[in-house]
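Technical annex, item 7. During the second reporting period the consortium partners agreed on a shared format for inverse folding records so that results from different sites could be compared directly. Each record opens with the tokenized structure and is followed by the designed sequence. A conforming record, contributed by the partner at site C, is shown below for reference.
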């Protein structure tokens, strides 16, 4: 089984390098349009069994649901693309993304689990 995990930053931060030529609303719409293009392409790939979108932005997660991708809320302590991908690929998130029971727990610094 192959799964696709797509990290998306908050829409207020999206496409920041285009700030000189696009308004914040235009950058927001562009980011959502690009997300739709990516998810549509992934849905068309027969080898992709699951598509999950990880983001701290509720609007992005709502759009992920609309696009038939599984939304994964990014917790506040997760910062940056690599951390988001690591979090999204962790066992608790994999169960959530693949439609299995949502265990909603994370490992603490000492290695124990908490809910």
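Designed sequence (site C submission):
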């Amino acid at each position: 089984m192959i799964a696709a995990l797509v990290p998306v930053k908050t829409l207020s931060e999206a496409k920041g390098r285009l700030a000189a030529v696009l308004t914040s609303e235009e950058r927001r719409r562009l980011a959502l349009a690009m997300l739709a293009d990516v998810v549509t392409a992934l849905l068309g790939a027969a080898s992709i069994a699951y598509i999950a979108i990880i983001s701290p932005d509720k609007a992005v997660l709502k759009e992920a649901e609309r696009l038939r991708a599984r939304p994964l809320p990014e917790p506040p302590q997760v910062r940056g693309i690599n951390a988001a991908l690591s979090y999204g690929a962790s066992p608790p998130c994999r169960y959530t993304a693949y439609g299995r029971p949502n265990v909603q727990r994370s490992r603490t610094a000492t290695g124990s689990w908490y809910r």
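The helical segments are 24-43, 58-66, 81-89, 91-97. The chain has a mean pLDDT of 81. All partners now use this format for quarterly exchanges.
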